[in-house]
Amino acid sequence: MEIILKQDINNLGSKDDVVVVKNGYARNFLIPKGYAMMATPSAKKVLAENIRQRAHKEAKIKAETEKVAAKMNGLKLIIGAKTSSTGKIFGSVNTIQIAEALQAKGFEIDRKNIRLQEEQIKEVGTYKAKIRLHKDVHVEIDFDVISE
Predict the structure, then answer these.
(1) CA contacts within 13 A on the Cβ side of 143
(2) How far is the C-alpha of 120 from the C-alpha of 139, rounded, in Å?
(3) Are residues 30 and 59 in the same domain?
(4) pLDDT in tens, 76-95
(5) Which of 51, 60, 84, 133 is the most buried (most CB within 10 A)?
(6) pTM: predicted TM-score of the whole model, two decimal places
(7) % pLDDT > 90, the chain
(8) CATH number, position 114
(9) Beta carbons of 29 and 103 less than 8 angstroms apart
(10) Number of structural domains, the chain?
(11) Can you tell me the mean pLDDT for 57-77?
């Protein structure tokens, strides 16, 4: 039986894939749980249209994030932290401070989309962070940690 998956299923396929499974698996498990629907000709046409529209929206979103990435390219942040006389930071610098510094510069970035190259930043210096703007668009920025 041919079905259209409504969500990702391990060892079977990802969302919007048309797959062939045994009748009992489809009728007794996938369709009643809402994981899939029958792949009728009209459902396939609707699926094709939805995929086409989603691709158009994704292209628009990707173009917008690439513009933001171009603005962020070469950006250098300065993050202040309380330090000891030897340059050790009390605590550590994390993605929350980087997100706040980016917000001060006019970029709304969620802290979950920021990855630090080092596990913990506990000393004054220059570091790099990788920011995920879109699944295909990443920007790497430099930031300095200075003593306040």
Answers:
(1) 31
(2) 20
(3) yes
(4) 999 988 888 888 888 888 88
(5) 133
(6) 0.66
(7) 51
(8) 3.10.430.100
(9) no
(10) 2
(11) 90
